[in-house]
Amino acid sequence: MPKRHSLRVDPISCDGHGLCAELLPELIGLDEWGYPVLRATEVPGTLLDHARRAVAACPVLALRLDRASR
Amino acid sequence: MTGIMQFAASGPRPLWYATRASGTIALLLLTATAVLGIAVGGRYAPQRIARFEISALHRNLSVLTLAFLGLHIVTTIADPLVPVSWWAAAVPFVSSYRAPWLGLATVASDMLLAVAVTSAVRLRLGRRRWKAVHWLAYAAWPVALVHATPGTDARLPLQLGLYTGCLAAVVTVVCWRLYRAGPGRVAARLSAALTALAVPAALGGFLFSGPTHARGGAPATPLTVRYGQSSARAPHGGSP
Prior knowledge:
The complex is a heterodimer. Chain A has helices at residues 19-23, 48-57; strands at 3-9, 28-30, 36-38, 63-69. Chain A is α+β, with helices and mostly antiparallel strands. Chain A has one domain: Alpha-Beta Plaits (2-Layer Sandwich), CATH 3.30.70.20. In chain A, the strands form two sheets. Chain A has a two-stranded antiparallel ribbon. In chain A, strands 2-3 form a two-stranded antiparallel sheet. In chain A, β2 and β3 form a beta hairpin. The longest helix of chain A has 10 residues, at 48-57. Chain A starts with a strand and ends with a strand. The model of chain A has no long low-confidence stretch (mean pLDDT 91). Chain B is mainly α. Chain B has one domain (2-233). Chain B has helices at residues 2-9, 14-41, 51-78, 86-90, 99-120, 122-125, 127-134, 136-148, 157-180, 186-209, 220-230. Mean pLDDT of chain B is 82; it is low at 214-240. Classes of the chains: A alpha+beta, B mainly alpha. The A-B interface holds A 13, 15-19, 22-23, 55-57, 59-62 and B 40-41, 43, 45, 50-52, 55-56, 122-123, 126-127, 130.
């Protein structure tokens, strides 16, 4: 059964460091104040490694990758 | 191992040189790690390099710091001329050899170990718990610096310059971060800035009053004097 991965930003924790948009520009853009805007929450398999890297890079652990089996 | 010990006990004392060199390098790397970490915390955003690169450099240098810290600890324990046990490397203030300074070293390395371990599992720990431990780095850095001030090489001008540079870098970045954290919380930021500025003032006064040499247990004094004479030929620090 394929696993579905989805990105989530915790708006309380997020300080707008912007590292996630640097590492995963395919899925994450920044608004005019530097806070992330998700273009899509579902992460395709080809971007999974990049998504994990972006999650690990967040200095305030505000970006999470949730996994749920379909 | 005994062969290494015998070699170390005679002649140029490579272990002692390794201890001093790795300690100095570890302090430099720790300072760089701290400066980069504070820069990340203050959302430093340079034009030329990406922010994730600063963050990655902070993490990679922290691992390198631990490597040199490990070398510093292992060579200190392995050096038969310095009576330091494995226990003293883990539990603060149990060593009889230059007790206060070695105790500070153990305190600093224990704190850094806690910071490193919690950072390695920070995604599992969650932000709050990870950050609570991560603040210890702010305490570990000055403790490590104070531990370095009575060192064998601390009488060399170059080494003192190095310490001053480390101090200036960290205090500058801390003040920058406090400035960036504004506006608001003026009292908290001002008191933090005063604390940051009090560290070099206290350390400077401490060095000037000169209690740093020939302290500690009975065997410390002859050892210190003997090593002190050879300190002018320190193999590191860039002097010929």
